[in-house]
Design goal:
With 159 residues, this protein is α+β, with helices and mostly antiparallel strands. It is 35% helix and 19% strand. It is built from 5 helices and 4 strands; from the N terminus they run H-H-H-E-H-E-E-H-E. Strand 2 and strand 3 form a beta hairpin. Helix 2 packs across helix 3.
């Protein structure tokens, strides 16, 4: 089981846990949840934000209703593994909103991308017009998700 960073106590962890489950929770409700005064909770939330434990708040959108219901993971193998090729690839993926996540990985390929598309035709167009045009791309492997079994961004927090 993970341990908390030394500058966080159990109350900080409870605050973070409550906020990651409901970013719109009121300060009063959050104070009740962690059994502190609203003033003390607000001060802690401000500190946690200032110290980058809280990076922001967002609404979780329904990708199916917005025409982005198909998840596609893509393994990317670059033609060279030099700093300038890595830098060019990283810069290029930043400008394409269809690429939701990009992770440099160890193993048989260099990057793992997560995209969301309307359907396979949209992915095929994206692959030809964007993906295969990214700098340094030698080879890709595509994995279209058939069923999303679990999708969570919540971190496990423990004291």
């Amino acid at each position: 089981m993970a341990t908390a960073p030394p500058d966080l106590d159990r109350i900080d962890l409870r605050i973070l846990d409550a906020l990651q489950r409901d970013g719109r929770i009121s300060n009063l409700k959050l104070a009740e949840t962690v059994t502190l005064s609203p003033t003390a909770v607000l001060a802690r939330v401000q500190r946690l934000t200032r110290e980058d434990y809280i990076l922001g708040y967002h609404a979780k959108l329904n990708p199916d209703k917005l025409g982005r219901g198909m998840v596609v993971f893509v393994e990317v193998l670059l033609d060279h593994t030099t700093p300038n090729v890595f830098d060019a690839f990283k810069a290029a993926v930043q400008v394409h909103a269809e690429i939701m996540e990009c992770h440099m990985v160890a193993g048989g390929f260099d990057y793992l991308l997560k995209t969301r598309m309307a359907d396979m035709a949209a992915y095929r167009a994206f692959a030809g017009q964007v993906l295969w045009q990214l700098p340094g791309v030698r080879e890709t492997r595509t994995y279209a998700v058939m069923e999303e079994v679990k999708n969570s961004a919540a971190l496990v927090l423990s004291a």
